């Protein structure tokens, strides 16, 4: 068998591999199109997500009750507020997924935006509160004043809620597609901001915790 014949055979094999791969990708794409257009599949996915959010909400409320029973003499500590907000966020998201069809038919349309966006705002507040908790631990461990942390937390949340409220009012006045896009970008930026704080103070607190035991 000469070199030319060998190369021809390898070329045919490669061509078959490409054809099989393309066929499988096309088959997967058609399956996804079928799922995406099927209301039955959509309802199943919505109900699965609702069940997962309900599970997280149940864990949060159980933790809140356990803490309250263990230390009833303390009021609403940061830890209790965190678990309560976690329960609230995931409970609302669970209901949104259960009643997704009904929400999509709500009028005026601004009610849809509020019901779908409000859990995201509460989610930001929940994890900003966790960042505040870690930041307080970190600065207290370094003997640094934490007096400015809580006012900063409330100020940042007030600004974010005010911006989102302004967008809702604009959408209530007129359904402008650009404002909807800006609202989604705003939520993406807010989530990124929360994630950066999460990594920064979560990482610092973890390092302090490790150094304490070393």
TrEMBL record:
Membrane topology qualifier:
Multi-pass membrane protein
Give the CC-aspect GO terms: vacuolar membrane
Keywords, A to Z, come to: Membrane, Transmembrane, Transmembrane helix, Vacuole
THH1/TOM1/TOM3 domain residues: 28-207
Compartments where found:
Vacuole membrane
Q: Which regions span the lipid bilayer?
A: 45-69, 81-99, 120-141, 153-173, 185-203
Q: Which InterPro entries match?
A: THH1/TOM1/TOM3, THH1/TOM1/TOM3_dom
What domain of life does the UniProt record list for this protein's source?
Answer: Eukaryota
Q: Describe the family membership recorded for this protein in Swiss-Prot or TrEMBL.
A: Belongs to the plant tobamovirus multiplication TOM1 protein family.
Protein name in UniProt: Tobamovirus multiplication protein 3
Q: Which organism is it from?
A: Turnera subulata
């Amino acid at each position: 068998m000469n070199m030319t014949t060998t190369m021809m055979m390898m070329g045919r094999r490669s061509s078959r591999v490409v054809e099989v791969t393309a066929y499988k990708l096309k088959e997967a794409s058609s399956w996804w199109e079928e799922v995406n257009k099927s209301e039955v599949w959509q309802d199943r996915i919505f109900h699965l997500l609702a069940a997962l959010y309900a599970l997280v909400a149940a864990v949060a409320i159980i933790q809140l009750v356990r803490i309250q029973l263990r230390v009833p003499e303390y009021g609403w500590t940061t830890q209790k507020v965190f678990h309560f907000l976690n329960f609230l966020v995931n409970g609302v998201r669970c209901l949104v997924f259960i009643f997704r069809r009904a929400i999509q038919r709500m009028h005026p349309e601004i009610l849809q935006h509020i019901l779908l966006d409000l859990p995201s705002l509460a989610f930001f507040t929940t994890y900003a509160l966790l960042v505040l908790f870690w930041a307080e631990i970190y600065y207290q461990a370094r003997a640094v004043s934490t007096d400015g942390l809580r006012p900063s937390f409330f100020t940042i949340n007030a600004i974010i809620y005010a911006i989102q409220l302004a967008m809702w009012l604009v959408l209530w006045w007129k359904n402008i597609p650009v404002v909807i896009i800006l609202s989604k970008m705003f939520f993406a930026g807010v989530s990124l901001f929360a994630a950066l704080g999460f990594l920064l103070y979560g990482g610092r607190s973890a390092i302090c915790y490790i150094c304490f035991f070393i």
